[in-house]
Write a structure and sequence with these properties.
This protein has 338 residues and is α/β, with parallel strands linked by helices. The chain has 15 helices and twelve strands.
Amino acid sequence: MSKRLPAVLLATRNPVALESIPPFFQTREAASTAGISSALNADPILVIFDPEDILECGAIPLATIQAAIDSMRERGAVVASSAQFLAEPQLHLGEALLAKGLRSGIRYIPPRVVMLTNYCGGVGKTTLSLALARYFRAASGLATTVVEIGVGASSLTARLGAETSLYDFVTQSSPPGQWEKVDLFTSDGWEAESLGRDERTPGLLRSIARDHTLTILDAFPTNPLWKHALELVTDAIVVSTPRSDSLAQAATLLQKLAEESSALPQKPCTHLALNQVRSLGERVAVAGQVEAWVGYDERMAERLDGRLAEPLMSLLYPNWTPRKPKSSGGKKPVNKKE
């Protein structure tokens, strides 16, 4: 990579932290409060700060440096101790770049497996799964897939005419279908029953997740593959609409997710997203429970417009900043957390 990326400040004596910074970042090291004060002029996007390692100069007390770093954190810089950084170095680098509006940061963040789910039909799981896949693939250029784990007939086949199924992939090593440069693995109820008994299925699901930066599971909780899928999930988004029955089912499912993931080595982050929001009153009724809101726009849903997924992107990648629209025409999905 020829272009130098923004500065990273290492205010630590931990040598491993320095070795973990890719060479195309501008690295600033400091072991004293005076050195940190000078390095802050580079406006670092990431500050690795171990206060106990810093030599305090009389003219610049450590408390002043701490206040300056806290102020930078409030303005969007990512601040971590060396131990926190070394636990997930790529994640910290990626989030720091995203916080500065640099979408190249998405390439540093570890792959994610995201489940969109609810007991209720008609809440928009498939629409949002495809919109999210389309949005992420277009914005990042990285490998993206949608895997259907539903009930009854295939929604992906009905919506897109996609034919290559997860069953074909597991039993015949068939390549996935394609839509908007997104890999598609369809599935129907009969195939799911068979795949649930096939000993090859868990390993091949893991291989799909390994081969894609973002794997999206359009999932129904009673599918036979649910258990295998949950073992891979980094984020579970329960999609609801403002209908009381949908919200009740969502609450039940959130409890189910908490119980079933408690014994997993990797516990997914769970979120509640409200789709098809038509009014402020529908939002106010569930304020404090919902983490993402998607406004109702039938035309955008029919087109599987990627902009519908912007609120979900902000859940998965907290520092993600949507691009400003080129024109003011048309409705936009709501993208605000309560």
